């Protein structure tokens, strides 16, 4: 089964799950990049059926499957703003990356149902792509998502940090959608012996739910060693586009 949804369904609380989920959890074959599965609340089945009629041949929408098997986080700890603030300052992401901690948690899903959880250690070997990213918010707002590594080449000597792993702007609603990508995701790696690196996700609510005309070079997945990915500043980026304080975030640690 191949699923591809284009465009935006504003009135529905859609849940985006991408091809690695199809493969690793549902055992389905998804073809190519960006084919995604979107789950809808059960109450909107009729809307989905209607929408299905507009799909090009070869594309289908499978609803029940996704609704039943929506990924769940094993660790159900509730992260209050105070806990998040504590984690961000304990790991010195405040002040190394941002001046203010996010208030809310963003949920990021990697293959094999792995989630960052405010400072857990993760093994980068499976981080071929990101399956899903979501945070509290409304469909009326527009968001910018930044994935940055401040510790490049190492936390002790971050002479080329931050490294921008993934930057997406103009995300309509609190779920990652592919089309506003400014910097394409690439699986990060670190040289041996450079210790633990912080991998930080920050989500900003764009002012007034507006679209931003980003004045950034598009960095595709082939630009791993492009100098423009290095010496990135989340702080300067947020200031340039008047993004204010981060609305949501999360982070993990990796060797
Ligand atoms: C994303 O796609 C939607 C629907 O096609 C479009 O309205 C929106 O402008 C696009 N956003 C960006 C940043 O290209
Ligand atoms: C990461 O995972 C790979 C594959 O499962 C494994 O070979 C490797 O030893 C792991 N590395 C660490 C540091 O756990
Ligand atoms: C979104 O905007 C519409 C139209 O402006 C409004 O009716 C609706 O209540 C808003 N929804 C939320 C969740 O803010
Ligand atoms: C980042 O900036 C530092 C200081 O200006 C410079 O020495 C370093 O080469 C830069 N890193 C990259 C990868 O361009
Ligand atoms: C890095 O470490 C891994 C596992 O510890 C080892 O297999 C690999 O050869 C090392 N690479 C280099 C360049 O030292
Ligand atoms: C944080 O999440 C709550 C809902 O859980 C939401 O009401 C609030 O607006 C969010 N804050 C920000 C800054 O997005």
What does this structure look like?
Helices cover 16% and strands 22% of the residues. The chain has 255 residues and is an alpha+beta fold. The strands form 3 sheets. Strands 3, 5, 7, 8, 9, 10 and 11 form a 7-stranded mixed beta sheet that branches. Strand 8 (163-172) and strand 9 (181-183) form a beta hairpin. The model is unreliable at 1-45 and 54-71 (pLDDT under 50). One 2-acetamido-2-deoxy-beta-D-glucopyranose binds at residues 138, 140.
Topology:
Blueprint: E1 15-18, H1 19-24, E2 36-39, H2 45-52, H3 64-68, H4 81-90, H5 93-96, E3 104-105, E4 107-109, E5 120-121, E6 132-134, E7 142-149, E8 163-172, E9 181-183, E10 197-205, H6 234-240, E11 248-254
Parallel strand pairs: 3-11, 5-11
Antiparallel strand pairs: 1-2, 4-6, 7-8, 7-10, 8-9, 10-11
Bound molecules: 2-acetamido-2-deoxy-beta-D-glucopyranose (6 copies).
Topology, number of strands: 11
- Give the bound compounds: 2-acetamido-2-deoxy-beta-D-glucopyranose
Mean pLDDT: 78
**Order of helix and strand elements from N to C terminus:** EHEHHHHEEEEEEEEHE
CA-to-CA gap between the ends?
A: 36 Å
